[in-house]
Specification:
heterodimer; A: mainly alpha; globular; B: alpha/beta; 5-stranded parallel sheet; 46% helix
């Protein structure tokens, strides 16, 4: 976690007994105090002050937009409120322009996530989806410690009622939450951080001109990013569960998406949902002429790129996704007719398999730009990738040679990814969750011990930060 | 309240179960698959070889000096043990010597400090990393003096299950442990890795490490033990510009402390190691190379051994 582990464990040791015994109002106050206390203890005073200011601005804006006034006045208040809330994020991002894209520098922890959450809250109040909340509730929402560092981006209609009246901690809730935490630890320590070691090694080989290593690093980064971000989301869901709050999932097997549109419904679901509800639909969504729709998509992905960082690489990454998604939308009929013409519909699943492969590879290429420190670097990496794919020298043998000093690491991480994909597939079977609760406790505990043992033995403990906490 | 008790009881049972599993696996691992470090710590804490001549150095020494051959080549009656450890440098050896070696039951008459081109680099290894092998009393003393960031690492390292990696599979697959391949602390290397000679790399010379080396020599001499410096050979040494600076530093330190200095990176000794076939990679000698080095070292070392360790050749 981006928090100090000892401080977080101490907090949980104090918090959980209180959440189990206190009445609803007491639980709410304890949660609020914990969130604010943890943020204040872990961050500089200026960052804490910024968090408080943003929350206060959202509280004032929400109160003002619900006051009786003409629609034009209410819209003006809403616009002013959104501007005030967005200003620090925009200023911080613009100030960091030109720095290494993934160098988070002194960006306050979770600023990008808190900003979107509070903006969404004010808009939801304006739309009448939720009544304006008290100051304490707004602070509890804006500072909820599991989601602040890297999401999932909370939505007020879902989170605020739960924060106002958190569920009591029951043995079942405790077990389910610990399962999420355990799974998050596995993804982070066994898959993501071990992949990071392999990527470091491949980057060295790539610098020395090994084209196979460039290709290997691109694939490895794809899985590392998903594992790293999923790990955080799982841990956030687990921590929130312990606090009596149920969060929606943030990832749903995105790399098995048959199209980029589906990918964005499964990757960072809370961000894509936010952009859809608060940007894409207000712009007209899909109910506009094709050209306007393409423009809307490009605007959404431009904002998505900028949200990740005011760097040319993120902007280009966003535009790449926007352009590809537009192309998918515009050519949908043509592609369907072509598939019918070649008789592809007679082979079940062909369309889906080809679409999945194409989408995964497009996303992987786009991550190369996302990961690069600068546009020039991204250009060099993409050229190396093209030459790697085009070169006959790329073979499993040359890839393994570039991995040789980390060969055992490669085997462990391949096994880890295999287990991860299998588990993700199992979760899609609706009865699995109920079945898991019905198996004898000793079988479940044996499973937990096995996962813990795998984490202890094959985990990498070099304390790499979560990638998305840098945004 | 009852929910809290159920959670507390289950969590307690789960944690106790986990501790039992960790301890059991750890005990099994420690018994069946000792690491190189463990073999060396066993010799240090429960000496069997009871060495008269001890060798300190890094992995270059572990794979470079064969004690058995050194005894023959130097016509020595003394027992020799190679205490070299991967990544070990003067800062590590100073703490190791002070806290463990000095207190051990057996004290050698000669210590060979094998130096290499990375010996003055920033500290690669610290005693805290070997928390698993320290006696409890030393562990607690080191833990109390460690920086807070090192304390959790020490606790993790104390239980081998947390860093066993492939070892744990070897235990279950009944694979060979390292102890069968270690002879008096030495491991011959076979095969060749595709690596470049180190001559192109820049060498960082850290003042703190140099100071630790000087203090280590002082500590050993204060215990009336003869110190000998050995500069280990480097592949392609004539084209390694940093070597002349390193050599000057080692020579100055040796002269100021009255320590003999045997240098395999200059003159005819370096020429003998210009052949890449003697190296497993750019830095480490292979079995053939280490035999050549050990023979040459034995001849040179003989001049500095106490008379009671010498026999006619």
């Amino acid at each position: 976690m981006p928090y100090s582990v000892s401080r977080l464990l101490l907090l949980l040791a104090l918090l959980l007994p209180l959440l189990a015994v206190l009445p609803s109002r007491g639980r709410r106050l304890v949660l609020l105090a914990s969130s604010l206390g943890l943020y204040a203890a872990e961050n500089p005073a200026t960052h804490f002050a910024l968090l408080c200011t943003l929350t206060l601005a959202a509280f004032v804006a929400a109160q003002l937009v619900t006051r009786p006034a003409s629609p034009a006045q209410r819209r003006a208040i809403l616009a002013a409120g959104i501007l005030v809330i967005l200003a620090p994020l925009v200023l911080v991002k613009v100030a960091s322009f030109g720095r290494d894209a993934l160098d988070s520098g002194s960006v306050p922890l979770g600023l990008a996530f808190v900003t979107l959450a509070l903006t969404g809250y004010v808009i939801d109040v304006f739309r009448g989806l939720i009544p304006a909340q008290s100051l304490a509730s707004t602070f509890a929402f804006g500072s909820f410690f599991p989601v602040i560092p890297a999401g999932p981006i909370p939505r007020a209609p879902n989170l605020m009622p739960q924060l106002n009246s958190p569920h009591p901690l029951t043995p079942d809730r405790f077990s389910q939450s610990c399962r999420h935490l355990l799974w998050g630890l596995f993804l982070k320590l066994v898959v993501a951080d071990r992949l990071a070691l392999i990527i470091d090694r491949l980057d060295l080989s790539a610098t020395a001109g090994n084209s196979a290593a460039v290709l290997g690093a691109a694939y490895a980064y794809s899985f590392r990013l998903l594992a790293d971000f999923s790990a955080y989301s799982e841990m956030a869901i687990g921590l929130a569960g312990l606090c009596g709050v149920t969060l929606p999932k943030n990832f749903d097997r995105p790399y098995s998406s048959p199209s980029l549109a589906v990918f964005w419904r499964r990757w960072h679901i809370s961000l894509s949902g936010w952009l859809k509800d608060y940007v894409y639909i207000p712009l007209g969504g899909s109910r506009v002429p094709p050209v306007r729709r393409v423009v809307n998509i490009l605007i959404v992905f431009l904002i998505s790129g900028f949200w990740h960082g005011a760097s040319a690489t993120f902007i280009v990454w966003g535009l790449m996704h926007g352009a590809w998604l537009s192309l998918e939308q515009v050519t949908r009929n043509v592609r369907d007719r072509f598939l019918t013409w070649i008789g592809g519909e007679r082979i079940p699943g062909l369309h889906s398999v080809l679409g999945t492969l194409l989408t995964f590879h497009f996303v992987t290429v786009a991550w190369v730009v996302f990961r690069a420190g600068s546009i020039a670097q991204a250009g060099r990496d993409l050229l190396a990738l093209v030459s790697a794919v085009g070169s006959l020298g790329v073979s499993p043998h040359s890839l393994l040679r570039s991995l040789s000093p980390t060969h055992s690491s490669f085997v462990f991480v391949a096994a880890g990814i295999g287990a991860w994909m299998l588990a993700e597939w199992c979760w899609t079977i609706p009865t699995v969750h109920q079945s898991l609760d019905r198996v004898p406790r000793w079988v479940r505990w044996a499973g937990y011990y096995a996962v813990l043992l795998v984490i202890a033995t094959f985990g990498v403990y070099d304390q790499r930060p979560f990638i998305y906490t840098g945004f | 309240m009852s929910a809290l008790w159920i959670i507390f009881a289950r969590l307690s049972v789960f944690i106790v179960g986990w501790l039992l599993i960790v301890t059991a696996i750890d005990a099994q691992l420690l018994r069946n698959a000792p690491t190189l470090n463990e073999v060396k710590y066993r010799e240090l804490l429960h000496p069997v070889a009871t060495a008269d001549i001890a060798i300190f150095g890094s992995s270059i020494t572990v794979h470079g000096i064969h004690p058995h051959s050194l005894a023959s080549a130097s016509c020595s009656t003394g027992r020799i043990y190679n205490f070299g450890q991967y990544g070990a440098q003067p800062i590590f050896y100073r703490a190791w010597y002070d806290r463990l070696f000095r207190a051990s039951a057996h004290r050698p008459q000669v210590i060979v400090l094998a130096l290499d081109y990375l010996s003055l680099d920033i500290d690669w290894k610290r005693l805290e990393q070997d928390a698993a092998y320290l006696p409890w009393r030393t562990f607690v003393a080191v833990w109390l003096n460690a920086e807070s960031s090192d304390r959790s690492m020490m606790l993790m390292n104390r239980f081998r299950v947390f860093r066993a990696g492939a070892d744990i599979l070897h235990v279950f697959l009944k694979d060979d442990s390292i102890s069968g391949r270690v002879e008096d602390g030495y491991i011959p290397l076979t095969g060749r890795q595709d690596r470049l000679p180190p001559s192109g790399r820049s060498v960082h010379m850290d003042g703190q490490v140099l100071s630790a080396l000087a203090k280590l020599v002082d500590d050993i001499q204060r215990d009336h033990i003869q110190v000998v410096f050995v500069q280990m050979p480097v592949m392609d040494s004539p084209s390694f510009p940093a070597l002349s600076r390193l050599r000057a530093i080692y020579r100055h330190l040796a002269e100021s402390r009255g320590v003999p200095f045997i240098d395999f990176t200059e003159g005819t000794k370096s020429l003998a190691f210009s052949e890449p076939k003697l190296f497993s990679d750019g830095s480490h000698l292979n079995g053939t190379g280490s035999e050549l080095l050990t023979t040459m070292l034995g001849t040179a070392l003989r001049d500095f051994l106490p008379n009671k360790l010498k026999t006619p050749c």
